[in-house]
Amino acid sequence: MSKIEKFIAEMNEDYQFKGESIVLGGAMIDGECQTNTLVSIPLKMMNRHGLIAGSTGSGKTKTLQILAENLSEKGVPVLLMDVKGDLSGIAAPSPGHKKIDERHAQIGIPFAPATSPVEFLTLSDEKGVRLRATVSEFGPVLFSKILDLTSTQSGILAIIFKYCDDEKIPLLDLKDLKKVLQFITNEGKKTFEAEYGRVSTVSAGTIVRKIIELEQQGAEQFFGERSFEVEDLVRHDENGKGIVSILRLTDIQDKPKLFSTFMLQLLAEIYSTFPEQGDSDRPKLVLFIDEAHLIFSQASKPLLEQIEAIVKLIRSKGVGIYFVTQNPVDIPDAVLSQLGTKIQHALRAFTAKDRKAIKLAAQNFPDTPYYTTSSLLTELGIGEALVTVLNEKGIPTPLVHTLLRAPKSRMDVLTEREINKIVKASEIVELYEDVEDRESAYEILNKKIELFQEKEHQEEMKKQEVKAKKSTSRRKEKSTFDKVVNSSVGRTVVRELTRGLLGVLGIKSSRRRRRKKNSWF
Fold first, then answer.
1. 3-class secondary structure for 78-147?
2. Strand pairing of 341-344 and 384-388?
3. DSSP-assigned letter for residue 20
């Protein structure tokens, strides 16, 4: 048996699955695609997470599109993080092309244009369903990790949440949290400390500054009501296709803190809301996080640990997470070790650092007698990738050089008019469009502060009245004395007293003069 025949036999054995699967493309060896030697991913293993990596322009976004549209076709809802704004084309069918037909002929599968049902979501001013969450839904532990607080500051935040729960004060947005911090360190300080202990004004000030830092990245648009229900991510259309929810993040690249905050809250909400599913024939939801390095690049250590923990646990909820980035080193090792599917597009080496990174990336893949992985990584063409997945028993399949199929949908963005049409037809956009601003901590505590200020004003007025009365009394006493002294009777009395006193002095003076005069004789 020749090398190629042996390769084909092994591929057909290793990549043939009993259950449903998604065809990625055709296996390649020595630069040639072996027709009808298909590379697939078992549908039941799509909740074991994955990585799609490769240099700019190598085709990783189109690979994401291939997976998303095929999952939707098989009834699995999908959430796409569209950072570059180039994934909206999944809502329109491919116009087809001669090169696409040639590629599919090499692979051995027909090409049929198709579309997927799409829902646009937004965190900012982009068009689509608005995503919001309340501060209370985050809880003190998660919120502390987002703000990167110390243990002391985290303790203060936990007490604040407890205080608001006890007093039935809703914490909805960031201005609510800032108002509580202001209240317990000023007007409400005595009452709060009597029940919950002393709060350092320095620590409270630090927490406020970190909240402001979060606000400067646009987080005030995210915190509030109405909260987005994660169940709306797992809907289907009338034909049974899974809805592809596209979160438009084109204006979020310079706001990594907001992106990390949203992702962590979303994953935590999914984990706490979805029931345990275990191993089933298909995942309940699959997330694709494009430009995944934005989550990890500026995340604090506690935040990274929280993300890593959720990635490990969320699989049991039937949720798969696929990270899309330029280099595997962008993903923390603790997360990378949890990824079952690895689709590696071309890497480019321009510096010694790049070559070192490629060698490290090659070590992440299973050994194979058919390829020199470190060399092949730099030689892959556009639309080609090195692939390894988990088979139905959870065992990694051999590494295979794959010629990827073309997306069934449009490989270009939708026009503004097409996007508007999809948003207008949405069943849930109006549900989340308007901001609900019900009475919460900000309004409740402002009223309390006004009562405190009014009470202080009344007490100050009483003090001023008492002071004024005492001053008036003293003036009255002085006024009575003046009247008596200045009256005719008073003047007579004063004059007689003065005269009597001067008379005595006059007598004594006269006697002294007489004695002095008689002394001459």
1. EEEEECCCCCHHHHCECCCCHHHHHHHHHHCCCCCCCCCCEEEEECCCCCCEECCECHHHHHHHHHHHHH
2. antiparallel
3. -
Residue of 318, 120, 397, 73 lying closest to 65 (CA atoms): 73
Give the tens place of pLDDT for each residue, 447-500. 887 776 676 667 777 777 777 777 676 665 555 555 555 666 555 554 555 455
Q: What is the DSSP string of 237-255?
A: -TTSPBPEEEEE-TT-TT-
Please name each of the domains of the chain with its CATH number.
3-132+225-433 (3.40.50.300)
Residues 135, 290, 214: CA angle, nearest 5 degrees? 30
* pLDDT at res. 71: 97
pLDDT tens digits, one per residue of 100-149: 999 999 999 999 999 999 999 998 778 899 988 899 888 898 888 888 89
d(CA 427, CA 339): 34
Task: Name the percent of the chain lying above pLDDT 70.
Answer: 88
Burial class (CB in 10 A: 0-12, 13-18, 19+), 73: middle
Taking 80 as the threshold, does the pLDDT of residue 508 lie above it?
no
Residue with tokens 């990336």: 361
Work out whether the CA dihedral 139, 141, 146, 149 comes out positive or negative.
positive
The closest alpha carbon to 37, from 87, 97, 107, belongs to 107
Q: Tell me: the pLDDT tens digits for 169-196?
A: 999 999 999 999 998 988 888 889 888 9
d(CA 399, CA 343): 10
Its pTM stands at 0.81
Residues whose CB falls within 8 Å of the CB of residue 28, separated by 6 or more in sequence, listed in order: 34, 384, 400, 401, 402, 403
The number of residues making up the chain comes to: 521
Torsion, Cα of 478, 483, 486, 492 (10° steps): -110
Tell me, what DSSP letter sits at residue 350?
A: -
> Could you tell me how far CA 468 lies from the centroid of its own chain?
58
Tell me how far apart the alpha carbons of residues 14 and 5 are, in angstroms, rounded to a whole number.
14
The token pair at 324 is 């899309």
Q: What is the CA radius of gyration of the chain?
A: 40
Reduced DSSP (H G I as helix, E B as strand, rest coil) percent helix, strand, coil of the chain, to 5: 50, 15, 35
DSSP assigned state of 276:
P
Please give the structure tokens belonging to residue 156.
């203060």
Q: What is the DSSP letter of 391?
A: -
